[in-house]
Amino acid sequence: MHSLFLILLLLSQVISGQVQSPFSGLENQQRAPKSAYPEPIKIIDGPVHVRDPTLVYDAKGQQYIVMSTGNELLYLSSPNLTGPYVQAGSVLGNASLISSSYNPWAPDVTLIDGKFYVYYCVSRFGTQDSTIGLAISSSGEESSFHDLGGLFSTEHGNISNALDPHLVPGGEYLSYGSYFGGIYLAKLNSLTSIDQSSLPGIKIADGFPFPNAIEGSFIFHRKPWYYLFLSEGQCCGFNQHELPEDNTTE
Ligand SMILES: *[C@@H]1O[C@H](CO)[C@@H](O)[C@H](O)[C@H]1NC(C)=O
Ligand SMILES: *[C@@H]1O[C@H](CO)[C@@H](O)[C@H](O)[C@H]1NC(C)=O
Ligand SMILES: *[C@@H]1O[C@H](CO)[C@@H](O)[C@H](O)[C@H]1NC(C)=O
């Protein structure tokens, strides 16, 4: 499969309520040549596989923390952004309150007012039987996270999939979605509660048909724009020589 890549979208209109087709005009965006970007740095060595990583700087502990899919959400740390990171345990410690049969995936960590919020999901691979949950900690230390369990769920028949949560800067929305239906913004009542009446939320990016489905949304804010990153494609056989380049959109 050749088309696993990141797409950059301009989202401020969507977030302010003027929903447009998020892909219109994308083909006209200027893209820098591949040569303009440095090679990625390898920051984790050894036998640890880090999938769906999320990273936060813990100023008190003077360390960078990486969390990822794996066991009860892998927890790695390093005093240096560029690593090396060592595995220090897991975020949840025990099975998620959502399910003891399925592992939690795709953590998303944000530090707000001294508290660490880790949104994550639990799902059955290839289905919409999915739940987005939350664990919080006031120190960020391994084993210090308190699991609050599920915030909301999807099942067969829903148009979205409660997977790959991400807290949108500003704390008012959680972006989420994988394959089924694309990427959505679910409204938060507070950092620990979803506005259930607003579900499935605002659709911000359309799911492509297989094998080019989208998932793994990540949004950052740099005024005046919100930028959405996501991944497109399907396992397996990623070819790094076939990344999009210049004005190519595929
Ligand atoms: C962090 O890593 C960089 C790059 O390897 C290195 O130059 C620097 O000395 C490291 N800093 C610390 C505090 O280890
Ligand atoms: C894990 O579960 C055990 C038994 O229910 C409990 O005593 C322990 O505090 C839990 N640990 C965490 C990190 O939640
Ligand atoms: C899934 O469908 C149920 C039943 O219609 C609904 O109550 C729930 O809010 C839906 N979930 C989402 C995330 O849309």
Kindly summarize this structure in a few lines:
This protein has 250 residues and is an all-beta fold.
Which structural class matches the secondary elements? mainly beta
Portion of residues in beta strands equals 35-45%
Task: Catalogue the ligands.
Answer: 2-acetamido-2-deoxy-beta-D-glucopyranose
C-alpha termini separation: 12 Å
As for the CATH topology, it is Tachylectin-2, Chain A
Helical segment count: 1
Q: CATH superfamily, please?
A: Glycosyl hydrolase domain, family 43
Shape: globular
The helix fraction, in percent, is under 10%
Please state the second-level CATH architecture. Answer: 5 Propeller
Unreliable stretches (pLDDT < 50, length at least 5) are 1-28, 246-250
Q: Can you describe this structure?
A:
The structure is a single chain. The chain is mainly β and 250 residues long. 2% of the residues lie in helices and 40% in strands. The chain has 1 helix and 17 strands. Strands 11, 12, 13, 14 and 15 form a 5-stranded antiparallel sheet that branches. It has one domain (3-26, 34-52, 91-242): Tachylectin-2, Chain A (5 Propeller), CATH 2.115.10. The chain has one helix spanning 12-15; strands spanning 5-6, 9-10, 51-58, 63-69, 74-78, 86-90, 104-112, 115-123, 130-137, 146-154, 166-167, 173-176, 183-190, 193-194, 202-205, 214-222, 225-232. 33% of the residues are buried. The two termini are 12 Å apart. Mean pLDDT is 84; it is low at 1-28 and 246-250. Bound molecules: 2-acetamido-2-deoxy-beta-D-glucopyranose (NAG) (3 copies).
